[in-house]
Design brief:
The protein is mainly α. The protein is built from six helices and no strands. Helix 1 packs across helix 3 (65-89), helix 2 (35-48) packs across helix 3 and helix 4 (97-107) runs antiparallel to helix 6 (131-155). The radius of gyration is 16 Å and the shape is globular.
Length: 158
């Protein structure tokens, strides 16, 4: 049952982030994350062993890269849910809104210091036209995922 809860919580929290990004698009014209690029990066990482790909935007389009990107996106959210579950089990976090937001804010180091750099955007998105905006969007998206994860684990009785 725990594995089922971990998966459901990961999926729902990912949906929450996607809804948040749609709200930003509707309200402020801020485009949501481009999961096609993530899919392209994932396929090239697996097929060519090319994790660092600063020229990913200029790589040829890969068949079904958008679908693959969405699957990677939801898989990562499930992984975050699993990590939070482990942190609950070791009593590092409790299932709550506040520990969820802490977790979400801590998890923002992944896009800032791993994903943005390997896609050529630089640490803290320094090579983008608006690094502050890119970093802020990552903070808010990860806060939404964290809040959702913490709150849902609480609702599921953990």
């Amino acid at each position: 049952m725990e594995l089922f809860h971990i998966i459901i919580i990961g999926v729902i929290s990912c949906c929450a982030m996607d809804l948040w990004q749609r709200f930003l698009k509707f309200s402020f014209g801020i485009n949501p994350s481009d999961w096609a690029v993530v899919g392209r990066w994932f396929v090239l990482s697996i097929s060519k062993g090319k994790i660092y790909n600063p020229d990913i935007d200029n790589e040829p389009v890969i068949k079904k890269e958008l679908l693959i990107g969405w699957l990677v996106h939801y898989s990562v959210a499930i992984l975050y849910s699993f990590v939070f579950f482990i942190l609950i089990k070791y009593e590092i976090f409790i299932a709550s809104f506040f520990d969820g937001i802490k977790f979400g804010l801590l998890s923002v180091v992944i896009p800032w210091f791993f994903f943005m750099p390997i896609l050529g955007k630089g640490f803290l998105a320094i090579k983008t036209p608006s690094p502050l905006l890119a970093c802020s969007l990552a903070i808010w998206s990860h806060a939404v995922i964290g809040i959702s994860i913490g709150t849902l684990f609480k609702l599921f009785g953990y």
